[in-house]
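Format notes (please read before filing issues)

Several people have asked whether sequences and C-alpha cells are stored in separate files. They are not. Every record keeps both together, in the order shown below: the sequence lines, then the C-alpha cell lines. Line labels are part of the format and must not be stripped during preprocessing.
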Amino acid sequence: MNVLDENIPEHQRQLLRSWRIRTHLIGADFSRKGIQDEQIIPLLHSLKRPTFFTRDQGFYRRDLCHAGYCLVCLEVNRSEVALFVRRFLRHPDFKTRVRRMGTVHRLSSAGIYFWQLRNRHESVLPWETAS
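Then the structure lines:
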C-alpha cells in the first residue's frame, strides 16, 4: 500500500494514477486533514505494510525504522515527486514490499540514501543501478 502525505501535490498524485501506481492520501483516504507528524507513525502501524511518501525531511531518521512499514522522504522539487516515486518503486533493491519494509529513505537527484532495521550505518545507492 502506497500512502502519500498531505504535502504531496494533487497533480503529482494524478500523474502516479495515470502510470497505474495506486496511492492513498492521508487526510482523504485515512485519518483527517491536518494530522500532526507525531500521529503519522501510529497511523502507519495500523495499516498493512505501507510505504509512506512525504516531502517532510523530519521523517528521515534511523530510529523510525520499523519492520511494519517503509518511510520515503522526497528531497526533490514538487513537480518531480511522481517521477521519483516511480523511480523508487521500480528500483531493483526496493521494487517489492518485502524489500522495502524496515527501511527509511531519502530520495534526491544524487541518489537513494537509506537506513535499514538493525544496521547502524547509512547506505547510499546511485540511481544508475535502477532499471
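For reference, the curators noted about this record: Helices lie at 10-18, 37-46, 81-90, 97-100. Residues 14 and 20 are 10 Å apart (CA to CA).
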